[in-house]
Amino acid sequence: GALAETEQLTRSAARWETALTTGADFPHRPAAEANLIYINRQLLRWSRWDDEEEVVTTLCHHQVNGSFDGLAPGLPVDPYMALSLTVDPHLMLQVAAHAASLLPRPPVRFTETPTFRPPI
């Protein structure tokens, strides 16, 4: 239930904090920062709110500028995560639009609009 989820989030936050405090610079550091902030919000940890807001805004600006496009498996701040963070609405829209622009486009399968034909 809720207690198990809280314990799991707490363990996850501790792992992200360890990864970030090692001082090592690694390619997925932006994703680690974003995930730690997201988890802190879920755990209602408000003590670093101001510092985290600055990190979130910086991450979003870098993301919109394409700085993280080559990272796998995806962008550090996905549009749904941005909804849970305090991000300027205009920047949030840019984050969502940039993420959508990176989605693969489905192939066009129909050359004409299908029509409904009722059974006889």
Secondary structure layout:
Elements: H1 2-21, H2 29-42, H3 49-64, H4 79-84, H5 89-101
Helix pairs in contact: 1-2, 2-3, 3-5
Describe this structure in words.
It is a single chain. The protein has 120 residues and is mainly alpha-helical. It has helices at residues 2-21, 29-42, 49-64, 79-84, 89-101. The mean pLDDT is 79. It is built from five helices and no strands. Helix 2 crosses helix 3 (49-64) and helix 3 crosses helix 5 (89-101).
**Whole-angstrom Rg:** 19 Å
Give the overall silhouette: elongated
Secondary-structure element series? HHHHH
Oligomer: single chain
Distance between the termini: 52 Å
Residue share in β-strands: under 5%
Q: Indicate the percent of residues in helices.
A: 55-70%
Mean pLDDT: 79
List unreliable stretches of 5+ residues.
none
Instruction: Supply the number of helical segments.
Output: 5
The strand count comes to 0
Quick one: biggest sheet? none
Q: Provide the structure class.
A: mainly alpha
Put the structure in a nutshell.
Helix content is 57%, strand content 0%. It has 120 residues and is an all-alpha fold.
Structural key phrases:
mainly alpha; 57% helix; 120 residues
